Automatic annotation (TrEMBL):
GHMP kinase N-terminal domain residues: 62-140
Catalytic activity: 4-CDP-2-C-methyl-D-erythritol + ATP = 4-CDP-2-C-methyl-D-erythritol 2-phosphate + ADP + H(+)
Name listed for the protein in its UniProt record: 4-diphosphocytidyl-2-C-methyl-D-erythritol kinase
Pathway: Isoprenoid biosynthesis; isopentenyl diphosphate biosynthesis via DXP pathway; isopentenyl diphosphate from 1-deoxy-D-xylulose 5-phosphate: step 3/6
Gene field: ispE
EC number: 2.7.1.148
Binding residue positions for ATP: 90-100
GO molecular function: 4-(cytidine 5'-diphospho)-2-C-methyl-D-erythritol kinase activity; ATP binding
Primary role: Catalyzes the phosphorylation of the position 2 hydroxy group of 4-diphosphocytidyl-2C-methyl-D-erythritol.
Pfam families: GHMP_kinases_C (PF08544), GHMP_kinases_N (PF00288)
Gene Ontology BP term (one): isopentenyl diphosphate biosynthetic process, methylerythritol 4-phosphate pathway
Length: 282
């Protein structure tokens, strides 16, 4: 069984508070994009996980491996599996590549064993693995609240994107630990952004995008700001860092402009993609 699992971007990301357990409360708009990993699941004598990228762990620290363990325990599945991950989504990039792989495993085993789990049931299992996992059972365009698990489906956004991941690694934990809520000068107007989405006003949406985590990540890694500027110079309607970074995306009205921007960025960044938004998850 092979499952295509898409990446996500954040069209906006706001931190609106902090729980007693240390988790930050979020209000963000998430969007799946046509950049896919592929996860192949086959029965095997022992648990094995493989990946075509050497910087992806192939042991229990891989969230897809843990997804298998959760499903085996919850549904008394005695079989073992070989999980083969074809990784096309950049790693540790703010694009939720690990979370979408975990969602693919849950959906794949649900189908393989005819468990007939509902989307809500799969979301509940996914949340035990990570806050971004439930989103991939919805996909498309969603408002995510709480720690990211409270999802509200929005109208589909349709546009061309350039996504660029500079060759740096950003620790999500570091970003949140160094985020100073009382020093954030500009928050996204999430209600207004949703209105733009509902009226299919892509230009106003792009111009209104804000990610408050940029206040930490861009200060540490100025290359993110440089990429945003290049995207705007090449005609992007708006440009934003996704998640805690370091990936940056730009929204383009015209695919030809997106391709020109892609070619410029490829001069010094290896992982650059021209993709579109999609209205599906795993």
């Amino acid at each position: 069984m092979i499952i295509e699992c898409p990446a996500k971007i954040n069209l906006s990301l706001d931190v609106v508070g902090k729980r007693e357990d240390g988790y930050h409360l979020l209000q963000m708009i998430m969007q799946t994009i046509a950049l896919y990993d592929r996860v192949k699941i086959t029965k095997n004598n022992e648990m094995v996980i493989t990946c075509n990228k050497i910087d992806v762990p192939c042991d229990r620290s891989n969230i897809a491996y843990r997804a298998v363990e959760v499903m085996k325990e919850k549904f008394n599945i005695e079989d073992n599996f070989k999980i083969e991950i074809e990784k096309n989504i950049p790693v540790a990039a703010g694009l939720a590549g690990g979370s979408t792989n975990a969602a693919a495993v849950i959906k794949g085993l649900n189908d393989m064993y005819s468990l007939n789990l509902s989307i809500d049931q799969m979301k509940e299992i996914g949340l035990k693995l990570g806050a971004d996992v439930p989103f991939f059972f919805e996909g498309g365009t969603c408002l995510a609240e709480g720690i990211g698990e409270k999802l509200t489906k929005l109208n589909d956004v349709s546009c061309h994107l350039v996504v660029a991941k500079p060759p740096i690694n950003v620790s999500t934990k570091y970003v949140y630990q160094n985020l100073k809520l009382d020093e954030i000068a500009v928050h996204p107007d999430t209600k207004r952004i949703i209105q733009y989405i509902n009226s299919n006003d892509i230009r106003s949406l792009a111009e209104s995008m804000v990610n408050v985590l940029e206040t930490v990540t861009v200060r540490e890694y100025p290359v993110i700001f440089e990429i945003k500027n290049i995207m705007m110079e090449f005609g992007a309607l708006g440009s934003l860092m996704s998640g805690s970074g370091p990936s940056v995306f730009g929204i383009f009205e015209d695919k030809a402009d997106a391709l020109k921007c892609h070619n410029r960025l490829r001069d010094y960044i290896k992982e650059v993609f021209v993709v579109s938004t999609i209205n599906r998850g795993v």
